From TrEMBL:
Pfam families: Glyco_hydro_1. GO terms for cellular component: cytosol. Belongs to the glycosyl hydrolase 1 family. It comes from Shouchella lonarensis. This is 6-phospho-beta-glucosidase. PANTHER family: 6-PHOSPHO-BETA-GLUCOSIDASE ASCB-RELATED (PTHR10353:SF122), GLYCOSYL HYDROLASE (PTHR10353). Keywords: Glycosidase, Hydrolase. The active site is at E382 (nucleophile). The lineage of its organism: Bacteria, Bacillati, Bacillota, Bacilli, Bacillales. One of its GO terms (molecular function) is beta-glucosidase activity. GO terms for biological process: carbohydrate catabolic process. It comes from the Bacteria.
Length: 483
């Protein structure tokens, strides 16, 4: 019931949610830079954007008076030194960041990289290491050069495999002495729920009635690109550890009806398909029937099977926020809210302010399921609670709700380790407040560090330590013994 002595405690972020400075030092526009903030009263639902190419072009032509929060982030591009000092104070062993692809290759098709972009990450990774942390770096975290979407159709186009591989090899060679832990695609299974965010293609680029075909074609191209990048990393970076990253979702059957149970089993394949390919280097047999029954034909090259076999990962990383409930199609019920994942509401669980159901035991279950299936090291690289925080008159943020959430999940991680799971580390999502992925707002906060900034980027940008800051510091100092 103890964490390993070398357990990697830390926090996780993404470039498009923290860096800001979207047009500084030669950076090109990314797909995230054109996602607009929508006020709560104007939201009809919580759907993730799936724009058309014309809607994106219109957004670029009519920017005045509109807000694109991921363009300004929290100005981490300029504040990273002081922000990392706060994470050092908490005792972080690792810090997860991503590289903005468009900061290195502004349109994605250049042969030579943008040196100013490379130098920024030179400084960032050096500073992370100087503060005693291992950088954990994601190559593609919900953004890509916008040009690749508008001109190529994003990951629907096989040309992106080589463009991504060129980008990956460039940063591997540049940072081989600074970064040993790498992730290829953030939550790669997300493109089944968020085609634009996860797959970089637009609504009009999909043939009518062929969305599922498009999603799995984009998935195939990403899986091949991930394998090529993984193989290249092992060749370029001495001692590199490369992981895949998926949305970790455990589903429960709505009832004991056998059809509900099998529907739950099938729903888990939305995750396992991706980890099966990453770990085993080949398509699982159950996908043959799925493709046949859904009239899906994947366009492949003869060398793809060999590439997948040669590019298997060293560990599996996952995000975990909630569990779900699955049922046979004809059963109806109240649905729970979620980010990318929604399902029938579980009456046995509490929920967050955003309606996300809270299930710490589900994390233990999921870790056991993954480890028993693959017998491969696991890494929780996202877990956290989005909530509205209030600053008191004396400049404090009393976020006991966040402490309770994280405490209960860490307790279940400890149980999973006692079960025999090989768990490498834990990076909470958003150790510093950042722009929300799902709603592009600051109101929904995750951090141990409060950032004085509103949904429109207004505020002093001052950083404040929340109560959870001191709590997490104690957790790390005692290696999870004092929760």
């Amino acid at each position: 019931m103890t964490f390993p002595a070398n357990f990697l405690w830390g926090g996780a972020t993404s470039a498009n949610q923290i860096e800001g400075n979207y047009d500084v030092d030669g950076k090109g526009l990314s797909t995230a830079d054109v996602v607009e903030y929508v006020k709560p009263e104007d939201r009809t639902n919580m759907e993730i954007p799936f724009p058309s190419s014309d809607e994106i072009k219109h957004a670029l032509e009519t920017e005045s008076g509109r807000t694109f929060p991921k363009r300004f982030g929290i100005d981490f591009y300029h504040t990273y030194e002081s922000d990392l000092a706060l994470m050092k104070e908490m005792g972080f062993k690792t810090f997860r960041v991503s590289i903005a692809w468009a900061r290195i290759f502004p349109t994605g098709v250049e042969s030579e990289p943008n040196e100013s972009g490379l130098k920024f990450y030179d400084r960032l990774f050096a500073e992370i290491r100087a503060n005693g942390m291992e950088p954990l770096v994601t190559l593609s975290h919900y953004e890509m050069p916008l040009h690749l979407t508008l001109a190529y159709g994003g990951w629907l186009n096989r040309k992106l495999i080589d463009l991504f591989t060129h980008y990956a090899k460039t940063v591997f060679a540049r940072y081989k002495d600074q970064v040993k832990y790498w992730l290829t695609f953030n939550e790669i299974n997300s493109l089944l729920m968020a085609p634009y965010i996860g797959g970089g293609f637009t609504r009009d680029q999909v043939e009518d009635g062929k969305l599922l075909q498009a999603q799995y074609q984009a998935a195939h191209n990403q899986l091949v690109a991930s394998a090529k990048a993984t193989k290249a990393c092992h060749e370029i970076v001495d001692g590199a550890k490369v992981g895949c990253m998926v949305i970790g979702m455990i589903n429960y059957p709505q009832s004991t009806h056998p059809d509900d149970v099998f529907a739950t089993h099938e729903s888990m394949r939305n995750t396992f398909f991706f980890t099966d390919v990453h770990v085993r280097g080949k398509y699982p047999t159950y996908m043959k029937r799925f493709f046949r029954e859904n009239k899906i034909t994947i366009e492949k090259s003869p060398e793809d099977e060999e590439i997948l076999q040669a590019g298997t990962v060293d560990f599996i990383s996952l995000s975990y926020y909630m569990s779900g409930v699955a049922a046979r199609q004809e059963v109806e019920g109240e649905h729970a809210a979620g980010n990318l994942l929604t399902g029938l509401k579980n009456p046995h669980l509490e929920e967050s302010e955003w309606g996300w159901q809270i299930d710490p035991v589900g994390l233990r279950t999921l870790l056991n399921v993954f480890y028993e299936r693959y017998e491969m090291p696991l890494f929780i690289v996202e877990n956290g609670l989005g909530a509205v925080d209030h600053v008191t008159e004396d400049g404090r943020v009393h976020d006991s709700y966040r402490i309770n959430y994280l405490q209960s999940h860490i307790e279940q991680m400890k149980e999973a380790i006692a079960d025999g799971v090989d768990l490498w580390g834990y990076t909470t999502w958003g150790p510093i407040d950042l722009v929300s992925f799902s709603t592009s707002e600051m109101t929904k906060r995750y951090g141990f560090i409060y950032v004085d900034q509103d949904d429109y980027g207004r505020g002093s940008k001052k950083r404040l330590k929340k109560d959870s800051f001191y709590w997490y510091k104690q957790v790390i100092a005692t290696n999870g013994e004092e929760l």
